[in-house]
Design a protein that fits this description.
The chain is an alpha+beta fold and 234 residues long. It has nine helices and five strands; from the N terminus they run βαββαβαβαααααα. A hairpin with a 4-residue loop joins β2 and β3. α1 packs across α2, α5 runs antiparallel to α6 and α6 crosses α7. It is globular and about 50 Å long.
Amino acid sequence: MPYFTVLGDVIASRRQKNQRKLLRDLGTVLAWAGAGAAPASTYQPLQVTIGDEFQGAFHDLGTALRVALRIELRLAGSLPVRLGLGHGEIEGYDPARGPLAQSGSAWWNARAAIERVAELEQEKRPFRRLAFASDDPLLAAAMEAWLCLRDRLMQDLDETDLAILSGLQEGRTQLEIAQQLDLDPAAITRRKYRRGIEALRAAYRAFDGLGSKAATSSPPTAAPAGTRTRRKRS
């Protein structure tokens, strides 16, 4: 069974003087981000592995993308991260052992994706913070296009925009967000549509329900050779 993996690391983490605090804060954010995923959609919970790296695995692409977004939004302005999403098989996972001692194409592809983000940084494209890799070339190409546009929209969001996006993604009303940010509710509406916030949310909503549909649907059964399908008379 293929899975969707999330692999991340903190950029320039060695510059952080208090490493214990960094790891503690990172663990808190990962627990919060993972709590936003339905238990049935989570194969491996988000966990810190070695140093500043962390990982998790999910049953559907939409959940993996939304969890990654939650990490980005919660760490915005404090701990910049690179994120790689992979698609493929996972071998050797044992919940009792934790995230270590496992392998498979899902993790190899996630590693390739996060290395791709680092390469893009060297190419002076710092707006790329998330990449995707899969052995399925069509899926990989479609996601590369989706993420390139997503990251470009994300780059233009200021601190207030990010707070609005975060609040909306968490299910808060525009009035609640306006009160939190001390803004007029009309300002929230203007920013939603003029700053690309609603476009981003629509892009994520496109993945809603895909995991559950894939799990419950099955291909139609072909009729045995030599048989005819009778047309129902009306």
